[in-house]
Design brief:
Largest sheet: none
Structural class: mainly alpha
Helix content: over 70%
Distance between the termini: 59 Å
Mean pLDDT: 89
Number of helices: 10
Low-confidence stretches: none
Order of helices and strands: HHHHHHHHHH
Length: 164
């Protein structure tokens, strides 16, 4: 099968443009709207574009990768990638927002209720009405919501909201 450069190259360029702009915005915490979601989901277009572009230009790509300097550069990026899986950042450093969210998710509902100016029973009722199974106000939001990040954020949003 022959891959046409007429569409493989524009897909790669368009996907790169999207990934570069949204990535820079996210890095500087300037992303708005659906920037983060576009970066995450449309990143698949980048993967597809690079794969198609690589196939369409396989001869030139293999010649480039045959050079020691190219192999060294690709090898360095592979090492950085491997390190990113194993090197753990200090959990007490980083984004204060992450620290606050982690603390809130780990705290008993009775404490979270106090921070959001509601009774523990009102919070239990609100979470139960939203479909969460709550056995006790001493459970944490993490215990109730499980490991799924979207469920944890839903529970946290509910816990901190003023509306019943």
């Amino acid at each position: 099968m022959t891959i046409s450069r007429d569409w493989a190259t524009p897909i790669t360029i368009g996907a790169f443009l999207l990934m570069a702009v949204t990535g820079v915005l996210m890095f500087f915490h300037l992303d708005t709207g659906l920037n983060k979601e576009a970066h995450e989901w449309l990143g698949w277009a980048m993967v597809a574009g690079v794969a198609l572009h690589s196939m369409a230009n396989w001869g030139a790509l293999s010649r480039h990768l045959g050079r020691p300097s190219a192999q060294t550069i690709v090898g360095l990026f592979a090492l950085v990638l491997a390190g990113s899986f194993f090197i753990q950042p200090d959990p007490n450093e980083g984004s204060p927002v992450k620290l606050v969210m982690g603390t809130m998710l780990a705290a008993p509902l009775s404490q979270v209720a106090g921070l959001s100016s509601q009774s523990p029973q009102a919070l239990v009722d609100k979470l139960t009405q939203a479909g969460f199974k709550v056995a006790s106000p001493e459970q944490s939001l993490s215990d109730i919501a499980g490991k799924a990040r979207d469920q944890q954020m839903k529970a946290l949003r509910l816990a901190l909201s003023k509306a019943p």
